[in-house]
Structures are given as C-alpha cells and as structure tokens.
Amino acid sequence: MPRPQPGPFGPAPPARGGAGLGRRPPIGRGLGPGPGPAPGPAPGLRPAGSPGAAAPAELLLSALAVRIVRRLSAPGPPPGPPAAAAMPGLGVCIVGSGNWGSAISKIVGRNVCHSGRFSPAVRLWVFEETVGGRKLSDIINQDHENVKYLPGHKLPPNVVAVPDVVAAVEEADVLVFVLPHQFIAPTCAQMVGHLKPGAFGISLIKGVDEGPGGLKLISDLIREKLSIEVSVLMGANIANEVAEEKFCETTIGCKNPEHGQIYKELFQTPNFRVTVVEDCDTVEICGALKNVVAVGAGFCDGLGFGDNTKAAVIRLGLMEMVAFAKLFCRGPVAVATFLESCGVADLIATCYGGRNRRVAEAFVRSGKTIEELEREMLNGQKLQGPQTAAEVYKVLTQKEMVDKFPLFVTVYQICYEGKSVQRFIECLQQHPEHV
Ligand SMILES: NC(=O)c1ccc[n+]([C@@H]2O[C@H](COP(=O)([O-])OP(=O)(O)OC[C@H]3O[C@@H](n4cnc5c(N)ncnc54)[C@H](O)[C@@H]3O)[C@@H](O)[C@H]2O)c1
Q1: Residue limits of the Glycerol-3-phosphate dehydrogenase NAD-dependent N-terminal domain (predicted)?
Q2: 124, 232, 111, 228: which is closest to 169 by C-alpha?
Q3: C-alpha 378 to ligand 1 mean position (Å)
C-alpha cells in the first residue's frame, strides 16, 4: 500500500493534490455492464470460434464491408448519397493496425453490431506494406486476418482496412488511436482539416513524446494537432491475450461522462471489463512509465535473479511511477488510480509478459544492442520502454530530480550511456525508499 504523504522519496514534490486511497470513485462504477453487450453472443451474431455457417448478420456485414472497400478504393470522389444516409450512427475509425490495433478491432467490430449507437462498418487505417507479395490491406479485407501483426485471429468482416489515412478518418465520429507513439505526430499531421466536425478520440498508445518543456503526453499531442477531445484507454492488456478472449480488465480515463458511456459500449465485453475514471493524465502516464519498469524487470531476468527481485522491481517501480505522476500531471493524482488495471495490474503483466521485458532480458544475455534486438525479435513491432526512459530522464534532469528516481534513471543509462547492467542491482540496493 502506498504510504501517506509526504511522497515516496522524502518530501513530496510541489503539491498536485496527491490524494489518498479511495478519494474518488471511478465514474464507471455502479453502472454495471451498462448498455454494453450482455454476456454471451448477441442475437444474430455467431459466438467467436463457434462452428457452423455464418449467421445472417455476419453475411450482411461482409457484403457491406465489400461495398465500402470498393467505394474507398474507387478513384475520385465517392459516388452516391452521403454515407450517413446509408449508415446511421456514430462512425468509428481505428487509426493503427499493429498487434493491439488489430486485437481491439475484434472487440470494436463485434460491439458496434450489438448497439444501435454505431455505424456497422469499422474502418481500420493500415500503414500499407507488402506481406508475401500482397498488400496488407488487401489481405485483411479478403482474408479477414492481419497475418503480420495478429496472425491466427479472424477479424470481424465489418472491419474494413483502409490504407489512405484521410479516407479512413473523414467520416468518423469516434477515432481510436493505436499506433506506436513515434508515428502519431506525422499521422495526425495528415489528418488535419479532414475530420468530421464534433469528432472525438481515445488513445490506446503507451508512451510519451518530447515537448519543448520536456515530456508531452500523447493525448496532448493529438489534442493540439487535431483540436478534438481525447480520452485514454490503458490496462493490463497484452494484445494476443485480448485477441484470444482471455479475461482482463482495462481503465478508461475520460472527463466527459457522455463519451465515457460511449467508450464503455464500444469496448466492453464479458472478457474485457472497463472501468472509467476521470484523472486521464494519471491513467496515461501509468501506461507509459510501466514500460520503463519492465525493462528493469527484464534486466533482472537476464542477470538470473528470481521472483523476489522482480517483485521488488515492481514495487520500487510503482513508487517511482506515483512520484513521477505527482511531479508531472496537471490535475489531482488519485493514488487509487494506481490500483486500477492501468496501474498495478499493467505493471505486473508487463514485467512478466511484455516485449520490453523480453528484449531487455535478451540484451543482458546476448550483448547485442537494443536496436539490433528490436529488429531481430519483434518482426516490425516497436519497443516503448527505452525511448520513454530517455524522455523521462530529460524531464528529471531539467527538474534536477535525477537522484530521486534511480530505477528510471539507471534503465536510461544502461540503454543509452553504456552503463553496465550489473549496476541495476546496485540502484535497487541504494534506493532512497530504504533510507
Ligand atoms: N501490443 C500490445 O500488447 C499492446 C497492448 C496495449 C497497448 N499497446 C500500445 O499500443 C500502441 C500500438 O502498438 P501495437 O502493438 O499495436 O503496434 P505494433 O508494434 O504491433 O506494430 C507496429 C505498427 O506500426 C505501423 N507502422 C510502421 N511504420 C509506420 C509509419 N511510418 N507510420 C505509421 N505506422 C507505421 C505498422 O504498420 C504496425 O501497424 C503502442 O503504443 C503500444 O504500447 C500495445
């Protein structure tokens, strides 16, 4: 349990309203499953993986998807009446089709069919690449599988891959951003001036960007570039497990209760339980910082330490996350948010299962650089932890608080300054938490 003030490492940083446990009830609590889909298959939809012929709804959606693909790939302006006439309801676009974007498209694709609130076709922006001699967007639209980033999982037929980012977003009311954070700024730049009035978004992106004053949240970057309301979704959500429909929880940070309800309807399933809270910045910063801690956990695995050490890394990492959030976030930081899926649960999952941990372990065992291992081990996927450590280090240097965050700082120094990985254990031994 986090200790009461003052902060985890001696005097608390300038007051940001650090709250005690249970200070603020999550705004999604007490809503029950809400109007989201009831457990079990929706009428007219075949449950995932069940044998037998496609249900009529699925066939209809498939036909609809084919029509949309034809319209979007036709040269010149799309013919016929405005799409809204044919497809009432909120249009949803998923901006990004990597491992997580593809997994979440399985959920969103199904949920839009259960609810009268959304248009039945979901657009999935695909950064086009060739896989086995075919365009990835064609593979997704014809075979309903992202064979590169989520192989082995069928996507719902109403999820339509669109390689042109403007065509993908221009009719969307709800934008789901799910790209590696290094690509978000150039992608938003292409979208400027092409969004529907009143569109709003949610970021599933874990990481931070570099800002003039130090570190910048990805949601802030999107808000600034596109002038839209942006919420966030973070949690212990390893994409492959979500795609396999293994039970998990997630946290949505959203200040607008109406949007919170829409997101709950869009994302919640019996095996993907959503809690909505208000302190978005804390939710988002958790999602970025846990990747730095996971790199540390990977170092310990590579050095041959055991579960006790890993638990200590998780605990000390969590304390640094809380302290950093209080230092950095604009609004109040409710410590209770760290007990949501976006906090402690995501930290545990990432320190045991994530790619940052895996690559960091290989870094110790192989002696190769992080860049080499990213290329060799991740098949085009991106690491977030080392880059986030570098952004965090800049902020701490500017604020002259490097000595208060030894775990974050040592991860940075090992990844970028050639510090010996053995020194990671020393940083744990001398951690200010024990002084
Ligand atoms: N994978 C997970 O388990 C998981 C879970 C939760 C959150 N996240 C977060 O979701 C975000 C997206 O991660 P992911 O795992 O879906 O991605 P990924 O690493 O699996 O895939 C990389 C993606 O980047 C795209 N890409 C490559 N070059 C590009 C460019 N120049 N411009 C635009 N796009 C380009 C690729 O086409 C691909 O879609 C990240 O912030 C990640 O931290 C991932």
Answers
A1: 92-258
A2: 124
A3: 11
